[in-house]
Structures are given as structure tokens and as C-alpha cells.
Amino acid sequence: MENIYLLMIVALAVLAVADLVVGVSNDAVNFLNSAIGSKAISFRTIMIVASIGIFVGAVFSSGMMEVARKGIFVPEQFMFNEIMIIFMAVMITDILLLDFFNTLGMPTSTTVSIVFELLGAAVVMALIKVSTSETETLADISKYINSDKALMIISGILLSVVIAFTIGAIVQYVSRLIFSFHYNEKMKKFGFLFGGLALTAITYFIFMKGLKGTPYYKDLKGLLEGNELLIIAGSFVVWSLFSYVYMNIIKKNILVLVIIIGTFGLALAFSGNDLVNFIGVPMAAYHSYEAWTASGMDASAYSMGALSEKVPTEPLLLFIAGAIMVLTLWFSKKAKRVTETEIGLSRQDEGQEKFQPNLLSRTIVRSATKASQAISHMLPEKIRVKIEKQFEKPVINIRKDKDYELPAFDMIRASVNLMIAGVLISIATSLKLPLSTTYVTFMVAMGSSLADRAWGRESAVYRVAGVFNVIGGWFFTAFSAFVAAATMAYIIYIGGPAAIAILLFFAVVLLVRNYVNYKKASKEIKAEDSLKRSESSSIQGVIEESADNIATVAKRSNKIFSSAITGLSKEDLKELKKCKKGIAKLSAEVDELRDSIFYFIKNLDESSVGASNFYISAVGYLQDMTQSLEYIGKTNYKHVNNNHKKLKFNQIKDLLEIQKQITDLFDKIETTFNDRSFENIEQILDNEKGLLENVSEKIQKQVSRTRTEESSPKNTTLYFGLLMETKDLINAVMDLLELYYKEHDSSVPAPKLEEVNEDK
């Protein structure tokens, strides 16, 4: 039996490594976003600063494993075999849950997940013990669970969300009123005070939160505790003087230093305090195993009171954990995806939105807009004009297709985000209030975005919907962590070692599957056949650049149309579902091209109006094509999914004949545009005029069949709809070809396009 528990310890050690990887991938959002979004320093420098913070925080962390050991349940009430079931259930659940959120690109709280997993697994084990006891009832569960601690954590979560958002919004609003978006001149006058305030808040946060879990904090405890106000005042004076010298003598931007130190501080605190979320449970399991083997007692008879004692973590293990976390930060693609979610929701400019609006976001935005207008009308005209002037954004003459070169927000907002997050976490730490660093940093960023008017009329419904999606995910984390860990614990209790082996295998399969699917999705995003925006300001330049787009649309439209007709003829629902996804992706990309028309036109000079007309017309024809394909794909899927009658043999034969002709047409278009042989367009137009006539003949044949032999209204409606949309599709293709044929001038040499380095 001892060998079984030894194997469980080994399995938990492996799970701890995996949990470190998925945990860092999710929590990287806490300390990277402000620096990445502001682009105050290079991405490489950001990673180096964060890596140092993570490693230092991990190596000097100790004595911070109490949540896993006794924070949620009462260890004396559980036997060794029961504790091992709890720990194994928690670790399997934690890895799967965090990897799920990472794959979605949604930031969640590793603290909340581990707490509710411990709570769920412990509650199930307590229920099992109560049910097998002759003397205990459900009322006795309270002696197994530290319910007061759990309630404190839940209340801390709710309070941190509201407080962080509110204070972040207020401080950012005041900061913008003082410095405005044109803050260079104001920074010369008052920047040393802002720098002093920000650096004081961040360094105080490093000591109060980042170093509180270290073995060195006890040496500083007497100096720090009770003298907080004096330390803060002294720090403000010192840092303000330093900022003045740094700006006026060294001639450097103090905001850059604020962002560097703030990033280091948050990384240090994350590693030093959240490390418990990843290795706390395996370490508690290891110490439990040591105590049990030393006792010589049976696993079901040995009470785990030993977990109540404070046991420091081995330095070598902390060193290894720090190294794994740093490597994950550098190499995890999912970490970058999670950071993109918050930056996307807080960026200052408009662009492609990740989330779709819903009723709640529309209602809130509409109400907030009316309230804002009412308050604005109540203010005196002079004050209103002055406020508006402070929020005037600088005009940056740069093409929208190069928005990756621009920061998502400026250094004022980045500094406020880091400063307020640090202050709130420090205050909560000093008051011993539980909270999630993820929740605080995210909500501060959202509050400052709102105050900075990043959520304008063009983007507010999308951004608000995104915030609610993330917050909803947090509550889902708590609920799913509790239920999943409870279920895992029960399965392990019933199935024993066999159940553990099956669950571990299941976890590995899911992790591998998620990784493969993520890699596949990433490749699709970076695929060569994705559509690209035009940069040229001349018609010939746009023709040359957009030729690859047309070839791509022809290739993908060919595949979509063929799948739609083949799937309908074979009643293959899987094929039709794949077709729907393909057209949805193509349609979204064409819509993005349409959305870029504004920025394309803004980039043109007065002599290039013809290029804008050409670009608008081309995008319009592409939209017509995707709309026809979308109708065909959705209608076919709906028909088969509803189990309606299959089309008759003659109808399928006619559709397959048209499909072959459409395939030939798209193949010719793809070859022509890939080779830039635009002179062949005339021949394509001449040869394919018969295709429209063929479709018209098929429509007439169906009219005759309907009058004499057709008996299914659904089939008739479907068939007519397909033929009419196919006709519209062909017309859109022909119009597009005619546009390129008329506007292309072979006497003008193809422009040499500069390669754009998109390496962020």
C-alpha cells in the first residue's frame, strides 16, 4: 500500500510542473500588460524584467503554503488516505481548468481556482465521513471545513472587483485631467511629483506584498509595521527628488522607470505569493507522506494534524519552480494570447473586437451614455470645454494597417494601472484581506480604460460585453472548480488507484488535445491564405497588392461552394458544418477589409481618389460573394439538419454540373491572379458567360418540374434559393473581374512593395 502513495507523490510532482506551466500562462496577464500595452520598453526588456521578478519572488518565497495545508479544511479531521485523495483531485482539476481558460485566452484567478478546488474536494470527503459515521450528521460538516476563511475569500473577490474598477477609473480620470493626452509639457512641470507618488506606491507594494512571504520579512517586520505612514512620506520625498534629478539632469523619462519597476514588483508579488497555487498542494502532500511514513501507522488511522504546523519549502524546489516559471513565460504562446485579451479590451484606438455585444452590454452603454450627457449638460460651459480639451487625443498620421507599431495606450495610463494595482494589493495585504491579483490588475485596467474614454461609441458595447465575459468566467471558475474537484474526489474514493490512473490518462489526453487544437488554430490564423489590407495609394498599386486577396478568396470560395453542394447531395452534416465555419471565417475577414476603408481613404492624397473608388468597389463585390456563399451554406445545413427530404436525382445532378463549372471558374481566377496575368480576365469573362445561361436554364427546368411532378415545397424552395444565390454569386464574381480588367494598365510597371516587419 505504501508504494501506491509513493506513486501518488510522484504523480503530484509531475502535475505540479504542469500546473506551473498552465498557471504562469494565465497569470502573465497580471504583470505584463501595462508594459506591453504602452510599449514604453522593448518586449525583450519587458520579459527580462518580469523574469527577474518571477525568479527572485520564487526563490525567496517560503512559509506561504498555509492555504493548501489548513486554510480551507481542518487537517486534524482527515486521515492520511483521505488527504491524499483531496490533493490528487485538486491537482488534476486545477491543470484542466486553467488550461481550458488559457486556450480560450481568458484571464482567470489561480487563487480562486485552487481555493474552490480544495473546498469542493474537502466537502465531498467530509460528506463521505459523515455518511459512514453513526454519530455525525450533516451539521457536523462545519468541523471539517474552515467556512469562515472561505466566506472571507468570496467576499474579498466581490469587493476587489468593484473597488479596483472604481478607484482605477477615478485616479485615471484625475490623472488625465491634470496631464491630458499631450502630457509632455505637463510632465516637465509636475512629472517629478507623479513619479515620486507612483514609485512610492510601487516600492511600498514590493515590500508589503512581494516580500511578505519571504523568510527575510521577519527581519524587516519590526521596522515596517507601525511605521507605514512615516515610511510612505519618507519614500515620497526621496522618490520625488530622485524623479526630479532623473528627468532634469539625466534627461530621461520617469514614466519608463515607473513601468519597469512596476512590472518587476507585480512579477515579484505574483511569484512570491501565487506560487502556493501551483506547488502548495504537492508540497503539502509530500510533507503528509513524510509524516505518515515516520509514524508507522495505517494510512486510514493516521490523523493529519501535522499539516497544522508551519513547514518551510525547500530552497532547491523553489529554485526549480522559479526556473520553470521563467521558461514558461518566455515560451508559452498561450500566455501571449491571454495578455492580448486584456490589451484588446483596454486599447485606446478602435479595431477588430474579440467579443460580441449582448443585451446587457447594450443596455449599460445606452444608460451610461444618457447619464454622461445629463451630467455634461449640468456643468458650466467653460468647465465642460476645458474638460473636453484635456481628453483631446493626439492625431497620429500612420496607416491603420500598421497599428501594431502604435501602443495600445500611453505611459500615463500604464503607470496608473501599475500604481493602483500595487496600492490596492498592499492595503489588502496589510489588512489581511484575501483577494486575487488577477482580478485587481484586470479591473484596474478596465476602470482606467473607461475613464480614458477608450470605450467610445464605436467600441463600448463590445468592450463592456468582453468585461462581463471575463467576470462571468471568474464566477464560472469558482463554481466549476468546486464541482469538478468534488466529482474527482468522489471518483478516486470509489475507484481507488485504478480511478487515479484513468483520470491521469484522461487529463494527459485532454491537455495534448487542447495543445494540438491550439496549435492548429494558431496556424489557421497565420495561414498564408488570410486576407491582407492594401497599403498603396494608386489604383495599379492596389491591384497589385490585392491580387493575392482575390486569388485567396477564389480558392476558399471554391472549397466552400464545393463542400456545400457535396454535403447537400450526400446529406453529410459534418461536411456542411465545416462549410459554415469556413464561410464565417471568410466573411469576417472581408468585413475587416470593409472596416479598414475609413483608414485607407484617410491615408490617400487628393490625387488618389480613383484608388479609393476602386478599393471600395472591390470590397463591395467580395462582400456580395460572401453573402451568397453564406446563404448557400446556412440553407443547406438547415435543410439536412432538419431531416427534410433529400433532393431528387435530377436536382442533384444539375447542382453537381454547376459545381464543376464553378470550380473551373474559381481555378482560372486563382491562377490568373496568382500569376498577375490580368490580360487573361477577358477570356475568362467570355468563356463563363455560358455559366449564367446554364443556371437560368436550370431554373426554368425546375419551374417545369414543379408544375408537373414536384411534391415537396421544402425541396423546391431550397433548390430555387440555391440557384438564385448561385446566380448572384456568379454576377458578383463577373463584376469583380470586369473591375480589375477595366482598371488594370499593363503599361504601368508593378509597384515594388516594401516588406512590412510584423514582428511585434
Summarize the structure.
It holds the Pfam family PHO4. With 760 residues, the protein is mainly α.
Question: How would you describe this structure to a colleague?
Answer:
The chain has 760 residues and is mostly helical. 76% of the residues lie in helices and 0% in strands. It has 26 helices and no strands. Helix 4 runs antiparallel to helix 11 and helix 6 packs antiparallel against helix 16. The longest helix has 66 residues. The protein is globular, with a radius of gyration of 31 Å. It starts with a helix and ends in a 17-residue tail after the last helix.
Instruction: Give the number of DSSP strands.
Output: 0
- What does the overall shape look like? globular
The profile of the biggest β sheet is: none
Number of helices: 26
N to C succession of SSEs: HHHHHHHHHHHHHHHHHHHHHHHHHH
List the helices and strands and how they pair.
Blueprint: H1 2-38, H2 43-59, H3 66-71, H4 80-104, H5 110-132, H6 147-179, H7 184-210, H8 217-224, H9 228-248, H10 254-274, H11 276-295, H12 315-331, H13 333-346, H14 359-378, H15 381-390, H16 411-430, H17 437-451, H18 460-525, H19 539-570, H20 573-595, H21 597-602, H22 609-641, H23 649-674, H24 681-687, H25 689-708, H26 713-743
Helix pairs in contact: 1-2, 1-4, 1-10, 1-11, 1-12, 1-13, 1-16, 1-17, 2-10, 2-12, 4-5, 4-11, 4-18, 5-18, 6-16, 6-17, 7-9, 7-10, 7-16, 10-16, 14-18, 16-17, 19-20, 19-22, 19-23, 20-22, 22-26, 23-25, 25-26
Subcellular location: Membrane
Protein name: Phosphate transporter
InterPro entries: Phos_transporter
